[in-house]
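Posting for a labmate who doesn't have an account.
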Amino acid sequence: MSATAELRTDEASPEIVADGYCAKRLDGCSPVPLYHQVYSALLDEIRDGRLRRGDILPTEAELGAHFQVSRITIRQALADLIRDGHLVRERPRGPLVIKSAPIEQRLARLTSFFIADALAQGHSPQYRLLGAACTDAEGQASALGIDKGDAVTRIDRILLDADEPIATLTSYVPERCCPGLLDHDLTGSLVTLMETHYGLRLTEATQWLSARLATVSERTSLALESRAAVVVIKRVTRGHDGQPIEFLECVLRADRYEFVMELSQE
């Protein structure tokens, strides 16, 4: 764990300074409550990497002095940062520690869905294979456009960021599309494997997004507390001929992701 973020005061500017950066000034005339301005200022520093994972946050008194607000205001901002998963107290009455910035995930990305955005934002995503087997299509038959008795390869993986579980992924791939899939390394990108070894070209996908409370098994897999929320993404990916190649179901920790959609006027 890195040392506590150092605070220093410039006589002309009472702003908080940690590791050489200046936080945003608070606006007492703004309709936005001061506690939320503090929340936003600290969250910006986490997202920008100026407050890094493992850094110890200054005390309530130090933050209050540098933001020039009461400890009650600071306490409310910190409570919201803890609630949203950006801070953690590793032991009772211990200091608050920066947990991690949320990953801004672009929903329109077809390939490298979980890897590219995370890498670009300084995260360390990697897959861990939980299991893989050949089985009947059953409940995924309709999505894949095949019969229930047709063979599919089921691949269960977990996505880690700096060894912290952030998502579970279950893929169903028709055996006719990728025969012998179990013989390959399934800890990397399945899309890359499909394109390079099987000559498939993934051109389009349909996905569904929903939110719910995590199940008991999901709380265990993702190290979540009781009544924690998760985001569920279901996606059917198709090849150039329009035939489904993969049905993917992902369960993501809601506190580790923010979803981005770029819109335009038609």
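Reply:
Got it, the structure tokens are right above this. Residues 34-47 form the longest helix (14 residues).
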